[in-house]
Amino acid sequence: MAVYTFNDMRNHIGHRIVCVGYGDKRYTDHGELANVSVKCETCGVVLFDLNQGDHYEKFLCIDNPIKNLYPDGVCPDCSKEIPDDVSDGDSCSNCGHVFHEPRPDDK
Ligand SMILES: [Zn+2]
Ligand SMILES: [Zn+2]
Hints:
The protein has helices at residues 6-10, 57-60, and strands spanning 17-23, 33-40, 45-51. The protein is mostly beta strands. The longest helix is centred in the first third of the chain and has 5 residues, at 6-10.
């Protein structure tokens, strides 16, 4: 996968984008559809792809899973950037906001 940022995607504005499926015997016994890719034909690169069984969430966890829960990676109370090594239960060094994974009873 080659697109992670706004600027990565911006490079392909106006290009010819196609969505293609691959049957790959590495992934299945029968060569059935195993991978779907969104490609830029102009550049010849895959912008985004998923293999059978993939969930998009896994690609969001490229840095810290706790930090990724917060929009823009900042503290929701004071907007200070959350450290990359934050772990569940750590608190903001600026305002004391506790960072944690969503609890089932939060709703
Ligand atoms: Zn392109
Ligand atoms: Zn804070």
